[in-house]
Amino acid sequence: MTCDVRERAEKLIVNLSERVENVRKRAATIPDRPRCFLMEWVDPPFCSGHWGPELVEIAGGHDSLGRKHQPSAQIEWQQVLDARPEIIVLALCGYDIDRARRDYELLRRFPGFGSIPAADSGQVYVVNASAYFARPGPRIVDSLEILAGILHPS
Question: What is the pLDDT of residue 2?
């Protein structure tokens, strides 16, 4: 049995692909690729994996802590301090914004947090990971656009 919506599905795929390419082309013209830490968990710290680092890359950033096409992983807090991210995006696995805000308060108490460029310049963002970042599917394109707006607001 089929759903008989092939034409509708093909239009959706074309639209999603065009949105990805739009972000990719616009980000490619920007010479500054900020250091971005897409954080999946606060305590203990986890870096992003799977599609997360690739989203940062396409959106015009660089996540040296991310594990592209691999599972996310626990990392040492010192690695975050050493990476000196200019932007931190709290895309906490399964968390909505309210819950992520609570973990942001925990993160602020980590030793040396204020010395990180992202913290010093107020470039720490909380996103709804449950809705956009933690699940594969069409909303990943929304995630990409959200990241592009965070990394390059102009």
Answer: 66
Measure CA 97 to chain center. 14
Q: What DSSP element (H or E) covers 107?
A: helix 97-108
Per-residue confidence (pLDDT) for residue 136, from 0 to 100: 84
* 124 three-class SS: strand
108: exposed, middle or buried (Cβ count in 10 Å: 0-12, 13-18, 19+): exposed
36 Cβ contact list (under 8 Å, min separation 6): 56, 61, 62, 63, 85, 86, 87, 88, 89, 147, 151
H helix intervals, 29-92? 52-58, 77-83
State the 10-residue block means of pLDDT for the chain, 154 residues long: 80 95 95 96 96 96 96 97 98 93 96 98 96 90 97 92
Cα–Cα distance, 129 to 107 (Å, whole number): 17
CATH superfamily assigned to domain 6-151: Nitrogenase molybdenum iron protein domain (3.40.50.1980)
| In the chain, domain spans | 6-151
Is the pTM higher than 0.90? The answer reads yes
